[in-house]
Design goal:
- There is one protein chain.
- Helices cover 74% and strands 4% of the residues.
- It is built from 4 helices and 3 strands.
- The chain has helices spanning 2-81, 87-169, 173-185, 208-216, and strands spanning 191-195, 198-199, 229-231.
- The chain has a 3-stranded mixed β-sheet with strand order 2-1-3.
- β1 and β2 form a beta hairpin.
- α1 runs antiparallel to α2.
- The longest helix has 83 residues, at 87-169.
- It is rod-shaped.
- The two termini are 25 Å apart.
- The relative contact order is 0.15.
């Protein structure tokens, strides 16, 4: 019976490791996806700033062209005003010149606003380009490391699963069924220990008679509350064999 209980203990160790590996194999790609999504969002923000800067410069050029057009018009009007034959014509030409000069001032104010905006955008773009290059390198390294880790985990998982099958085959069929049933019902944990006359899993106090029977070590005992298999007297004993086999499973 002690042999079977020690094998159950070792099987639980392997099952715990299998669960850890499966969870990590599932989690690592999610981690990669998260950092790649973050990188992609930073790329899109940089592209948006670059597009805004390009649009700013395009609008700046358009305003400069408008100013050039108004100045050409003023130059022509100045030539025409000297040829005005009446006060009415003179005032009309002067009105157009004043209007063009006012429009130039308006456009110059818009250009100043654009220049302030352009400076901010240009600084943002330069900082983002530097940061994005560094982040891209870090993400690339992280992806490579994660792929290696997943490959190692998959290899270890396959070895642990094979070792588990060997260990399970060494158990009595009825005990294995009990273990598997409790493990499924209790989130993968089928065993518990005695700690201060209590179940280490559910903390229920054991009855004196239950403890007496447990000390006999002549049959498998299960907690009357959580149904986990109770291990007693073998906690400090070494495994029957390395639960990891040659795979390095901890």
């Amino acid at each position: 019976m002690q042999h079977d209980l020690r094998l159950i203990r070792d099987l639980q160790v392997v099952d715990d490791r299998i669960r850890e590996l499966a969870q990590e194999i599932e989690r690592l790609p999610q981690h990669v996806a998260a950092i790649e999504t973050k990188l992609d969002s930073h790329k899109k923000q940089l592209e948006a700033d670059q597009a805004a800067l390009a649009e700013n410069r395009k609008t700046h050029r358009q305003y400069e062209q408008q100013i050039s057009t108004f100045r050409d018009k003023i130059s022509k009007l100045n030539g025409q005003i000297s040829e005005a034959k009446t006060n009415e014509q003179y005032r009309a030409f002067q009105h157009e010149i004043d209007f063009a000069q006012a429009e130039i001032r308006k456009v110059e104010d818009r250009i100043l606003d654009l220049m302030v905006e352009a400076e901010t955008l240009d600084n943002n773009v330069k900082r983002a380009e530097v940061a994005l290059k560094e982040e891209s390198r870090e993400v690339e390294k992280e992806v490579a490391v994660t792929k290696q880790r997943v490959a190692r985990d998959r290899a270890e998982l396959a070895a642990a699963a094979a070792r588990r099958d060997e260990m399970a085959a060494g158990l009595p069929a009825s005990l294995l069924r009990t273990y598997e049933g409790v493990r499924r019902a209790r989130n993968g944990v089928a065993i518990a220990h005695v700690v201060d006359a209590r179940c280490s899993a559910c903390n229920v106090m054991f009855r004196p008679h239950f403890l007496q029977m447990l000390h006999r070590n002549d049959k498998v005992m299960a907690c009357e509350s959580c149904s986990r298999i109770i291990l007693h007297g073998i906690d400090d004993e070494p495994p029957l064999e390395d639960p990891a086999g040659d795979s390095g499973v901890a």
